[in-house]
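Appendix B. Raw example, untouched.
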Amino acid sequence: MIKIGLIGAGHLGKIHLRLIKELPEVFELVGIYDSNPIQAAEVSKAYDCKAFSSAEALIDEVDCVDIVTPTTSHFEMASMAIKRSTHVFIEKPVTQTTYEARALLALAEEANVKVQVGHVERFNPAFRAAIPYFDQPMFIETHRLAQFNPRGTDVPVILDLMIHDIDAILSVVKSSVRKISASGVAVVSDTPDIANARIEFDNGCVANLTASRISLKNMRKSRFFQKDAYISVDFLEKEMEVVQMETLEGEPGPYDMVMEMGNGKPSKKIIFDKPEIEEINAIKEELRTFAEAIHNDTTPIVSLEDGLLALDVAEQILEKLKMSGSLIEK
């Protein structure tokens, strides 16, 4: 059993708290801390757990902490825990800046603790079902659109929404980033509410990402194109489908869909596949695998290095937006 404490008892923190309590086989919930004592008392009563008077007091009683606070306090809370040799699960984005993320990385290596970053889409069952089909995608297109919610306008849409797709793409494309371009428009807030970024990789892959928080409907779709295959992942509906082409051997069957390639090239048979998707709660799964990494002394599925890489690309996109005049620093 791993003793765990939760830091940050807001909307997302309460979701994490409920799911931690649904994992009694791996976690023993010691208590919570929130900077708002009234909020902490209410959540403590609702979830039947102890509210600590300080983050330090909580950290001293646990093996790991789940940090679900605003990004502005991620570095403070995580560094405090790591310096006390406590394992850390930290929500995305990992920190406010890559400078802070690199400092955390150095601390974590020195303390020899596990740090997992909450890029939850890696645990989305549709994305996990697609992983075996990826074979050097060379063009990727993502759309992450959300209905307007004032609660999310305190951070740029890049860090709020697009960073999910940045992390997912970086986990699939095993190549360094060569070039980034971006544009965006501020519609209802002081920073871009809709933005587009183009990421070019050294291996020739190109990713085109669009994120918006002023859409009339929610959408979270990614499309991956590679040699003889197209893979579509719907993160929202938790669906995945694959269209593959393979060289036709012999005569086609009566229901086969065949594409003539011309110029004497062999015909291709088109194969459609829509695998059954396992029903899982992605947040619960990421917390469970975090416990596994601690138990087995293995690297978390979404490591601190992964969080740093995603944040680094996000910062470069924000810099491109600033250069284009789309993002104005206060």
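End of appendix B.
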